[in-house]
């Protein structure tokens, strides 16, 4: 897995922040963007896409994953998640969805003051559900 430094974390976060402007959030007004770094080095962006039928909405993180998986990417180093102002952290559904592919991935968010926070996905979802036979660290 490619290592990446603070600069790349900041870049990933800025990519997520830019992406959030493309979010479709007419109901909540809470625009979220994500930037997912695949092992190939490619970055996949995602935004939340809401729907008049609320349950049909999808979060930015899952949008990014669906794009990446559908393009053949299978392993991931990190995901940055951003909103316009407040810290945006992945919801429970997204944590489980992402855990399927990358429990060791870094999740990069940003506190209101501008400080980046980096946590492993498995810290955000301890003992996530998995049917895979190999033991998870
Ligand atoms: Zn979510």
From TrEMBL:
One of its GO terms (biological process) is pyrimidine-containing compound metabolic process. The active site is at 61 (proton donor). It comes from the Bacteria. Substrate binds at residues 48-54. Keywords: Hydrolase, Metal-binding, Zinc. Zn(2+) binds at residues 59, 91, 94. Its cofactor is Zn(2+). This enzyme scavenges exogenous and endogenous cytidine and 2'-deoxycytidine for UMP synthesis. Belongs to the cytidine and deoxycytidylate deaminase family. This is Cytidine deaminase. It comes from Candidatus Allocopromorpha excrementigallinarum.
